[in-house]
């Protein structure tokens, strides 16, 4: 039997649901947990605000009030309220956090995780399967796997270390990243139900706020229902998890799990910025080295991107934050390889559009570019280098955890009467110092390696007014951070909300620090870790109970 989908809009108002495990949100975090329970006999109910198709009214529930650094994208555009969540928008770039990200560092206040990076290795491997990525390897050992000779002279790893990201691949379309939602869950999942058009609006605890008793859901056409479960996991994303705790203030006025006023604080992202730009006409050598690579194995082709990061030694020596840079290319119009793609599409559809005609001309008039591309693809086994208008050195930086960078509740409300999130995102001088140092070190290294240097951005030297050069990357982190100390964190090492029995959180809101790596691989790994913990300790399946008896 397959997953059963129900729609709250067509059910009787006042319905009650019961499950062993209720998962709120069906993005990478929620569905990774749900999949782990398929066929276990544990009754799982996934509660999802959206449906299988986009709905603008539902999407409007994500509006925010912004009072901090201007956001690059409106929050109703950089999170997606649909079955499968924001994975329908993401680019699919994956890398794990580094060892240094987990350490308590004297120069990074509130740093240090209560779990080790090493303990996540098995979960990172498993997460890779959900995301359709290649081997769990992100360093120079990859050269051998790419079957490419390493560069003759390597970077000075004591200051700038080589890093790689890889790109997620959809299980039946290698040009798309993994999309959770339809097709992600196995066909046969009789113990999994999904309730769609169901917006969680309140978490109901006992009078003391120490035990989660039920959750309230509402549809946009006014239907309401109550859900009870032994364990409830919030998987609503880095902003919404905190908003839900704070807005659940009817029984506990400060909000659920907010007895120490930590919920919503420490909001971080990966501020992104342009460190500098290369002359596109002279950047071939650097684009070749710090470009894309292919790894072919029994699971097909995996695409990797090569970049550079501040070494942990230098971070410690100069009291800097973790950050990494890579090349970002703005393609030029009339690139013949782009034209090849549109020609292929035209041939497939049988429609010769004006674009396809222009494409054919671009191919015919640029035989050298096509020839070089073929040489790269079939002889060098590397992707083609496209024609570029701009080649930027782009950077993502970890943020200094700051309790005043935070999300609170706005006076404005959404259509369901829930207060909007009021976002006061802050960036510190340490972020600017860190990216500035990385930019200079990359220039020094490129000088030594005889590679063309970028022209650095002037704002890097500005003492004031530099903040707008950073943009958020839709990676909200830290608002329900993990710590064994309830005064410093919202969830404990098992992702259970401190002092609230039965309530768990998954997603980037539990990360105490942000690293520089895009978050989803870590989100999925941490979600699998939570699923295992629930399976073996909180909701033991019959098999686990038997195993435990045998061991005893
Ligand atoms: C343009 C873009 C590009 C990105 N690229 C990358 C990338 O390259 N690499 C990377 O690692 N990350 C990337 N990300 C971020 C990535 O998409 C997120 O990290 C990831 O989707 C988070 O997963 P999640 O399950 O925690 O939350 P989401 O995917 O946001 O899922 C949350 C789910 O909760 C549901 N929900 C929310 N509120 C409620 C409620 N009250 N009641 C019921 N359901 C609710 C939503 O409908 C949604 O389905 C990108 C994001 C964007 C916008």
Structural notes for this entry:
The protein is of the alpha/beta class and 552 residues long. The protein has 3 domains: 1-133 and 173-269 and 402-427 and 473-552, FAD/NAD(P)-binding domain (3-Layer(bba) Sandwich); 135-167 and 271-329 and 387-397 and 443-469, no CATH class; 333-383, no CATH class. Helices cover 26% and strands 22% of the residues. The chain has 14 helices and 19 strands. The strands form 3 sheets. Strands 1, 2, 3, 7, 8, 9, 10 and 19 form an 8-stranded mixed sheet that branches. Strands 5, 6, 11, 12, 13, 14, 15 and 18 form an 8-stranded antiparallel sheet that branches. Strands 4-17-16 form a 3-stranded mixed sheet, covered by helices on one side. Helix 4 packs across helix 13 and helix 9 (336-349) packs across helix 10 (354-365). The chain is globular and about 70 Å long. The two termini are 35 Å apart. The model has no long low-confidence stretch (mean pLDDT 94). The structure holds flavin-adenine dinucleotide (FAD). Flavin-adenine dinucleotide (FAD) binds at residues 24-30, 47-50, 78-79, 81-82, 85-87, 89-94, 199-200, 235-237, 240, 244, 474-475, 507-508, 518-520, 523.
What is the structure about, briefly put?
By secondary structure, this protein is of the alpha/beta class.
Secondary-structure blueprint:
Layout: E1 4-7, E2 15-24, H1 28-36, E3 44-47, H2 56-59, E4 64-66, E5 93-94, H3 99-102, H4 121-131, H5 142-146, E6 160-167, E7 192-196, E8 199-205, E9 212-218, E10 224-234, H6 240-247, E11 272-278, H7 284-289, E12 292-297, E13 300-310, H8 312-318, E14 323-331, H9 336-349, H10 354-365, H11 367-378, E15 388-397, E16 406-413, E17 419-424, H12 429-448, E18 455-456, E19 503-505, H13 520-538, H14 542-551
Parallel strand pairs: 1-7, 2-3, 2-10, 3-7, 4-17, 10-19
Antiparallel strand pairs: 5-6, 6-13, 8-9, 9-10, 11-15, 11-18, 12-13, 13-14, 14-15, 16-17
Helix pairs in contact: 1-13, 4-13, 9-10
The chain binds flavin-adenine dinucleotide.
Flavin-adenine dinucleotide is lined by residues 24-30, 47-50, 78-79, 81-82, 85-87, 89-94, 199-200, 235-237, 240, 244, 474-475, 507-508, 518-520, 523.
